[in-house]
Amino acid sequence: MKNLDKLFYPESIAVIGATEVKLKWGSIVLANILDGGFKGPVYPVSTSRETVYGLKAYKSLKDIPGKVDLAYVATPSHTVMEIMRDCAENDIRNMVIISSGFSEAGGDGVRLEQELADFARKHAINVVGPNTMGMSNLNWNLFGTGAHPRPVPGNISIIAQSGNVGNQIMLWAELEGFGIGKFVGSGNEAVLKVEDYLEYYNEDKDTGVILIYLEGVDDGRKFLDIAKNTTLKKPVIALKAGRTVGGSRAAASHTGAMAGSFRIFESVMRQTGIMIAMNPTELLELSVAFDSFPLPKSNRVGIVTLGGGWGVITADECEERGLTMPPLPDEIRNKLDKKLPPFWSRSNPVDLVGQPDVALYKESIELMVSSDAYDSVIVLGIIGSASFGIRPLQATNRLGYISDDEMRRIEEGSAIIEKQILDTILTLMNRYHKPIYPVTMAAFPDNEIMHTAEGSRYKVIVYKTPEMAVLCLSRQYLYSRYLKMRGSC
Amino acid sequence: MKNLDKLFYPESIAVIGATEVKLKWGSIVLANILDGGFKGPVYPVSTSRETVYGLKAYKSLKDIPGKVDLAYVATPSHTVMEIMRDCAENDIRNMVIISSGFSEAGGDGVRLEQELADFARKHAINVVGPNTMGMSNLNWNLFGTGAHPRPVPGNISIIAQSGNVGNQIMLWAELEGFGIGKFVGSGNEAVLKVEDYLEYYNEDKDTGVILIYLEGVDDGRKFLDIAKNTTLKKPVIALKAGRTVGGSRAAASHTGAMAGSFRIFESVMRQTGIMIAMNPTELLELSVAFDSFPLPKSNRVGIVTLGGGWGVITADECEERGLTMPPLPDEIRNKLDKKLPPFWSRSNPVDLVGQPDVALYKESIELMVSSDAYDSVIVLGIIGSASFGIRPLQATNRLGYISDDEMRRIEEGSAIIEKQILDTILTLMNRYHKPIYPVTMAAFPDNEIMHTAEGSRYKVIVYKTPEMAVLCLSRQYLYSRYLKMRGSC
After folding, report:
1. A-contacting residues of B 150-209, CB under 8 Å?
2. Does ipTM top 0.95?
């Protein structure tokens, strides 16, 4: 195994091609590293400047006084070979080559890239790229990409065969509040390939879930072996782009990847335990679910809902995705009989018929999650019901029949209720080690999407739609079944 | 045809069971009507109060001095029959019966509902419900439901066999800024049924698109005839819940609807031209797309993208949904050859390889939409690229190398660019009458989701994901093909 430790956890960084010229890669990447708060020394290398962004600049890598662990390169392609030789001479064993103009450009670029790859292998230099969006390690305060998304640090690590898609996923993660660990845009994969990153992430203690955007793999056998090994340890979620003829054609003109038959890919993936996402949204959402919820032991789901219609919709989604909804045990039915109006559903989904009763919400959720009949619970519309439910009171307030003071108290109370329900779900997950998926009645702009607490093993993700909750739960079940099959659960 | 005009456009309203007791239906609905700004007189009816929310209250419908067009009823079920008799005597021909405790409760409720339905038919009273979330007409300042969502007025009218799902869709519409026309929760459908509302919406000049949440239909034949007639005039989008065994079981315990085979439903729907949604999100999104974009004449799509990866993903989605991506005409290729770096894709998708050049964006979009080779265009990542693209400059500003004043100018400039691109798309749609679907690089919290202008025939919806854009476009194509087949396009 290649040792990529100093690539992802460098003590010091050089940026070759550093400049203050706006929107040049050498400016963008350096600004990202500095603004991102990297803790070690950063050495700009510039042939023309004395300082860049207030840092002393060096004419060449040779002139840098200290040890350099990692070099970012953002200079024209024809200059990169010489820079790599300088790296070798100065014992710099890790490079991120942002520069384009290599195999993706055809012609001379192909030869340049081959030369570069041969040299790197000979001198044991780890190379990300060329033609990469860059590499970041958020657990190391290192933001080293050509775009500036800023998710919070977390345990989901990304390998992207498209920098553009990868960065977008990073940006979505930022906007939703999802935590990301490492990000690498693999670029042309002249030296380090998707399977090398996968192998490294597998051993990486900061990585809990691995997210891959895949267009193609050179060494399928090796990728599969590593994948099979990795999924025993942590979940791997992959989106394979280029699964249709049109998509493959687009992929060929993008990264030159040859897309094979998606059916074959799918069945091979099933053997490796990699979970497949069909689009970038699913890719991120699945990764977050695996990072947050305990795995369900079976496909038996209990549903608690505030309204009948949503229960029906969710039941459809569950059944279509291979989850089952076993009938309500007598014990639960008898207990709820005492709490609910006579016309309640008496079945799974448990329809709480709109009762605004927080104690009842908590009790029903616990009845379901503690029952041997269910290994997971979906909770529909309880989150969000307090915020939405006080709207009639806000109207009454506007009509002048509830004082502003009282209204404020009611609004504060409703926020407390929302939080209590999230806390209840979190507590119950930690107690029973079963996933409880809440779907919000409506995602208000200031709602928490991810909820956790000090010392909690799990996180609660609040879903905007039942279909996304069911998709994530069903993939968690598939993974759990896969692990059982491999004898590892 | 039943005349439901005074139901949906009443000049005056009575609310029976009006009260100031918080969170009782008689308070919630009245507060909604008053706070919603209904223009005509509103008469509370209360056996115990002199006034309710500052309005004189009447002991009975008989005591109301003026003509009443519509009565909302929120009293216990055993009192409703007498109220209906009062309605008949006072020539009130439209009732919205919020009260529950009818057929959904079983036992006596079934008999009560039958009695009520017989009487209503005999006396030509239009009845919404019973057991309904209510009815609203946003084009008439009438908010008459038991929940308080507040979307802007628009042309999408809703029929919901679950008040809970319907209200949630209304709330989503509010949060996304999508315009809604009418909303009716059909409840137990004792008198007026889903097909009656469909028939009315078909004739309704304020309704452009019809959205239906369906659990079951009593008179399938009638529903299909009306649907077939309606889709010739305006798009109808339906979500059928209870399409699996588990879902049907849940539906049976919810509204008592018997769900048939979804396959049969699907094939029948195909004949009627109703477009099928698979979940509530799709239901709303499809309705909004039909309400906003021109219909494509064929399935030939041109794609313009800022990054290769997203182009691949979108190409996959297109092909999987029956859309085709014809190759780039020489004329367009030659024109773009002069503008783009030598290694550009030269094919469809057109990959602008990240060039930050607004004039180029506009020109490429126009080249594609004006070409005979394409009947629709998907634009990936151009919207949002200015807001995201200035982040490196914001970092440089934080590092102290761009002044705050200059940064403010840059940020204003970027907002102007975002708007210019939206305006360009809108202008081009109005010029070529082809849909142009933009997908944003990332949905920043303060981004516009819907963009239009005075006098524009169309609206631009900014999609958060390529898959939703492709889904909507593909359904627009199916509808366009359906209309052609029926000889009406």
Report:
1. 160-166, 168, 171-172, 175
2. no
Q: Which residues, in sequence order, are CB contacts of A45 under 8 Å at separation 6+?
A: A14, A15, A16, A17, A18, A57, A58, A59, A60, A61, A64
How far is residue B46's CA from residue B56's CA, in Å, rounded to a whole number?
Answer: 10
Given a contact cutoff of 8 angstroms between Cβ atoms, the answer to whether B5 and B11 are in contact is no
B259, pLDDT greater than 60: no
- At A216, which amino acid appears? G
Q: Which of B23, B105, B466 sits opposite A342 (nearest CB)?
A: B105
B281 and chain A in contact, CB less than 8 A = yes
DSSP state letters, B4-34? -HHHHS-S-EEEET---STTSHHHHHHHHHH
Residue A125 CA to its chain's centroid (Å): 28
Which residues touch B387 (CB under 8 Å, ≥6 apart)?
Answer: B414, B415, B418, B441, B444, B447
Report the predicted TM-score, pTM, of the whole model to 2 decimal places: 0.94
Locus of tokens 């007791």: B21
Residue from B484, B275, B472 nearest B378 by CA: B472
**Nearest-angstrom CA–CA distance, A407 and A394:** 7
Respond yes or no on whether the N-terminal peptide bond of residue A349 is cis (omega within 30° of 0).
yes
Burial of A274 (0-12, 13-18, 19+ CB in 10 A): buried
C-beta atoms of A395 and B148 within 8 A: yes
Tell me how far apart the terminal alpha carbons of chain B are, to the nearest angstrom.
Answer: 27
pLDDT confidence of residue A488: 74
Q: Cβ contacts of residue B212 below 8 Å, gap of 6+? A: B158, B159, B160, B194, B198, B236, B237, B238, B239, B274
Q: Inspect the interface and report whether the beta carbons of B168 and A444 lie closer than 8 Å.
A: no
Query: B375-428 pLDDT, tens per residue?
Result: 999 999 999 999 999 999 999 999 999 999 999 999 999 999 999 999 999 999
Q: CA-to-CA distance for B52 and B65, rounded, in angstroms?
A: 17
Strands B236-240 and B180-185: unpaired
Instruction: Give B181: exposed, middle or buried? Use CB within 10 Å, 0-12, 13-18, 19+.
Output: buried
Closest CA to B196 of B180, B212, B178, B176: B212
Q: Are strands A180-185 and A135-137 parallel, antiparallel or unpaired?
A: antiparallel
Q: Which residue of A has its CA nearest to B465?
A: A281
Residue-wise pLDDT tens digits, A124-163: 999 999 999 999 999 999 999 999 999 999 999 999 999 9
**Which amino acid is present at A489?**
C
Write down all domains in chain A, each with its CATH number in brackets: 1-132 (3.40.50.720), 149-292 (3.40.50.261), 295-485 (3.40.50.261)
